[in-house]
Amino acid sequence: MYAGNYFALFLLLILCSPEITVSKIDSAKAQDISNLAASVDYFTNSLYQAVATGTNENVFMSLFSVATVLSMVYLGARQNSAKQFENVLKITSNPDSVALAFKEYFSLLKTSDKLITFYSVNRLYANEKFPISEDYKNNMVKYFFSDVENVDFITNAEKTRITINDWVKNNTNNKITDLLPSGSLTPQSVLVLINAVYFKGMWAEKFPEQATSSRKFYLSSGKTISHDFMYISEDFNTKISDNYKVVELPYIGKAFS
């Protein structure tokens, strides 16, 4: 249980080694991905701070996945709506460059390491009252490997909910079986944005099971409780900012961490 892990989540943050990314593509595409990474980094930090502020509970969410599905909507936005997406997502490139960067990124994730089982799928479900242009559908397939489907929220909301849950189940190796609870979709529903991820890998540096021991865990209240801690002594990449500290734990093959 200490050697590896798998994730099958509706929203999951995936970090990919930038050295692997840049080495496999030309400089122009690498710059597009770098611009995308900077935008996503700013947006995800801002979103996390907004969600975590004022709560004493643990916060776990896939910030990259949120950025992905919002970017999918952004490519269909125009005029003031597009400007608002650009401001929120801190997009500095043009829409075509953003789309190409996502395409390259997802392509690299699919092929970066044969030792890892990984796939990420996206899908948009839109109320059939709002027809989606063929150009937009084609762009979603081309750049995000995503389908856009018009569904009947008005008279078949519950049936649509089951259809969506079945799709998520099939694309997460049966790990997520009831993403949308009963009653979550109504005749007023307009658009459902889905990003489903399946990932399975082994740590490059495994945590020795015998090193696990009970230690003090400090709560936000200042109190402490005893809990089991895994332990490993290795050199890892770290990042320190004003609001957080991060350590990078690579998986075997080191294309994912």
Automatic annotation (TrEMBL):
Signal peptide: 1-23
Cellular component, GO annotation: extracellular space
Residue span(s) of domain Serpin: 45-257
Pfam families: Serpin (PF00079)
InterPro entries: Serpin_dom, Serpin_fam, Serpin_sf, Serpin_sf_1, Serpin_sf_2
Keywords per UniProt: Signal
Listed GO MF terms: serine-type endopeptidase inhibitor activity
PANTHER family: GH10112P-RELATED, SERINE PROTEASE INHIBITOR, SERPIN
UniProt family annotation: Belongs to the serpin family.
Protein name: Serpin domain-containing protein
Organism: Octopus bimaculoides (California two-spotted octopus)
Taxonomic lineage from the root: Eukaryota, Metazoa, Spiralia, Lophotrochozoa, Mollusca
